[in-house]
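To close the chapter, one final illustration. This time we ask the reader to focus less on the individual chains and more on the assembly as a whole: which components sit near each other, and how the overall shape emerges from the parts.
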Amino acid sequence: VHRSIDLKVLYFGTPVVVISSRNPDGTTNLAPMSSAWWLGQSGVLGLANSSQTAANLRRERECVVNLAPSSMVDRIDRLALTTGRSDVPEYKRVMGYQYVADKFAVAGLTRQPADLVGAARVGESPIQLECVVTQAHPIDGPDVNATAFQVHVRRVHVDESLVIPGTSHIDPLGWDPLIMKFCEFFGDARAVHPSRLAEAWAVPRAIAVAA
Ligand SMILES: Cc1cc2nc3c(=O)[nH]c(=O)nc-3n(C[C@H](O)[C@H](O)[C@H](O)COP(=O)(O)O)c2cc1C
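The assembled structure is written out below.
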């Protein structure tokens, strides 16, 4: 028996990644996100237009997608409620977001130079994808003002402990992606950490969709 209900959040469960993108001053901004999916060597990254990352991707046309294992959850949670935009959008300010210029420092993450991309990789991420932006598709709706950035993977870096010896394959048993499900964090199908984003989403508010 199914019930017809009004679902406020449609985040059914997707892996968390951290996007490294280059700011206008040459520093690297980091943003956790989970609206990412893959087809062949291409990916699609769904990003709110109000984010610093969306502005950076539009301008620089490149990024690093750093995949997050469940063991990175504490660091990811420290990045939540931060933005690289010094003019914090009002709807984010109300939710408790703060401007952070150095997200590596706030999350205790390590910069690792990329080979082909201006932004730095996240050293703690065991799977890092250097990407170019090939297209930007608008996603507009009554409650969304975002862009689906289509990216092409140019270089893949994988922690060798995850590579099946003698192959170019990742051991799926060794790879435990951090999953965001309804704003909560899961790994190995279990809740693994309290989530600041889930707490912020619990605050009643009108979602501003203007950039
Ligand atoms: C686990 C997690 C998943 C998120 N997923 C997305 C997402 O898929 N798309 C998006 O636009 N923002 C997502 N966010 C929110 C962004 O991280 C947030 O907008 C952040 O301020 C962006 O940083 P920036 O403004 O420096 O780019 C997510 C946040 C967390 C903690």
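The pocket of flavin mononucleotide is lined by residues 16, 29, 31-35, 46-48, 51-53, 76, 80, 83-85, 97, 180, 197 (CB under 6 Å). DSSP finds five helices and 15 strands in the chain. With these observations in hand, you are ready for the problems at the end of the chapter.
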